[in-house]
């Protein structure tokens, strides 16, 4: 008997049933966590005070709709990449292209009154940096959950899965953050949200594949 | 990413269940439910495919390790298999990952230990592995490809390779190390290379 035969005998002896991976369960866990974050923000009174007035504006439709679309697509790509045959490089490229497209689409809904202001006032770096940090903080619980799901699953391209995970967590975090972000300028959103999302995606790409073994 | 000089005859490596398209999926589904007999049959059948797969891609001395690593990965991650999907592509993706892991192990291993198996033990496997690797070497810088070809495929010692190329031992080792790392990254990134 070869060592491979012995291994097969060992693996198949006393085989216990396993609980199959369920994407539906994983999506449910992500939704519950994101809803929990949202509930915490609302309970802490963090919602922007004029939400009732701006919720139906084209700007908010772009901001919430665009981020919801990005979050949905990137979560789908991340979860798909967790089991073989994995998500392709093309799918990741599509997610990033969509992110750029959504941000550029903000130009269409730019408020003409704000677009005449000096660039530095529109970008408000100090407040923008706080927004980017808030997105990173809100992404962390979602990234932790996705990292656990990734480690339990079988990503055959860990680096791609990690990048997709970072993008998914960051866009979900940014989506949650929209309820308290007071900014009404698409340029501000495009720049500072992109900074927050890119930081989380880069950190995930760097951290998650470490010591991962299929 | 598409590699223009893929190894030849790739169709032979497609993971196809000889007993029918759904048999392996059904066996894995039974294994997920705890059926040891079905699992043993599945692993025995897939071992033949894995051995063929790795013989074409790795030096003969590394084939058994790669097969066993792949079997362990299949075992550890069996809960991720969706019985509604075919088993072949699922297993092939795991096998490709293990090929990449094994190439990394080879790249890390001290160069002097490698040559004997490759040159003597199993000529057919060595030739198939060399054919596959030679097809991929065109993607490397000439100095890297030359060093890998001499030391890893033709069994030259580092000293012989130094004499032949006029490079220092550390330069030859560096070329081998960087070349294998680049090769591994190429294989890993190529969606169409299985």
UniProtKB/TrEMBL annotation, chain A:
Superkingdom to which the source organism belongs: Bacteria
Keyword Membrane annotated: yes
Pfam families: NrsF
Keywords, ordered alphabetically: Membrane, Transmembrane, Transmembrane helix
Record's keyword annotation contains Transmembrane helix: yes
Transmembrane segments: 27-47, 59-80, 92-112, 132-150, 162-184, 190-208
Protein name: Anti-sigma-F factor NrsF
UniProt organism field: Methylorubrum suomiense
Automatic annotation (TrEMBL), chain B:
Record domain RNA polymerase sigma-70 region: where: 47-108
InterPro entries: RNA_pol_sigma-70-like, RNA_pol_sigma-70_dom, RNA_pol_sigma70_r2, RNA_pol_sigma70_r4_t2, RNA_pol_sigma_r2, RNA_pol_sigma_r3/r4-like, WH-like_DNA-bd_sf
Extent of Basic and acidic residues compositional bias: 1-16
Domain RNA polymerase sigma factor 70 region 4 type span(s) in chain numbering: 136-183
Highest taxon, organism lineage: Bacteria
Alphabetical UniProt keywords: DNA-binding, Sigma factor, Transcription, Transcription regulation
Classification via Pfam families: Sigma70_r2, Sigma70_r4_2
Disordered, as annotated region: 1-21
Family: Belongs to the sigma-70 factor family. ECF subfamily.
Name of the protein described by the UniProt record: ECF RNA polymerase sigma factor SigF
Gene name in the database record: sigF
């Amino acid at each position: 008997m070869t060592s491979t035969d012995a291994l097969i005998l060992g693996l198949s002896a006393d085989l216990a049933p396993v609980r199959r991976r369920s994407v539906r369960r994983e999506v449910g866990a992500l939704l519950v966590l994101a809803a929990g974050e949202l509930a915490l923000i609302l309970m802490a009174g963090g919602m922007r005070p004029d939400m009732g007035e701006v919720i139906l504006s084209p700007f908010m439709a772009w901001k919430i709709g665009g981020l919801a679309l990005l979050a949905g697509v990137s979560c789908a790509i991340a979860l798909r990449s967790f089991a073989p045959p994995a998500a392709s490089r093309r799918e990741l490229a599509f997610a990033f292209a969509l992110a750029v497209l959504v941000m550029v689409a903000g130009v269409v809904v730019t408020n003409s009154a704000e677009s005449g202001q000096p660039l530095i006032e529109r970008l408000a770096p100090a407040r923008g940096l706080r927004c980017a940090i808030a997105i990173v903080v809100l992404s962390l619980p979602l990234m932790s959950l996705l990292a656990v799901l990734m480690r339990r699953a079988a990503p055959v391209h860990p680096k791609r899965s990690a990048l997709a995970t970072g993008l998914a967590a960051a866009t979900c975090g940014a989506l949650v953050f929209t309820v308290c972000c007071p900014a009404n300028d698409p340029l501000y959103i495009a720049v500072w949200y992109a900074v927050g999302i890119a930081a989380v995606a880069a950190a995930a790409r760097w951290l998650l594949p470490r010591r991962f073994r299929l | 990413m598409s590699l223009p000089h893929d190894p030849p005859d790739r169709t032979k490596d497609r993971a196809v269940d000889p007993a029918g398209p759904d048999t392996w999926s059904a066996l894995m589904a039974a294994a997920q439910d705890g059926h040891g007999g079905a699992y043993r049959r599945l692993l025995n059948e897939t071992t033949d495919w894995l051995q063929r797969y790795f013989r074409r891609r790795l030096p003969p001395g590394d084939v058994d390790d790669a097969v066993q690593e792949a079997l362990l990965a299949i075992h550890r991650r069996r809960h991720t298999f969706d019985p509604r999907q075919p088993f072949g592509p699922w297993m092939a993706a795991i096998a490709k990952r293990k090929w990449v892991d094994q190439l990394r192990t080879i790249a890390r291993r001290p160069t002097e230990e490698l040559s004997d198996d490759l040159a003597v033990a199993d000529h057919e496997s060595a030739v198939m592995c060399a054919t596959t690797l030679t097809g991929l070497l065109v993607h490397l810088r000439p100095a890297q490809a030359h060093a890998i070809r001499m030391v890893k495929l033709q069994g030259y010692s580092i000293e012989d390779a130094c004499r032949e190329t006029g490079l220092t031992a550390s330069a030859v080792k560096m070329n081998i190390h960087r070349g294998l790392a680049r090769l591994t990254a190429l294989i890993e990134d190529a969606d169409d290379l299985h």
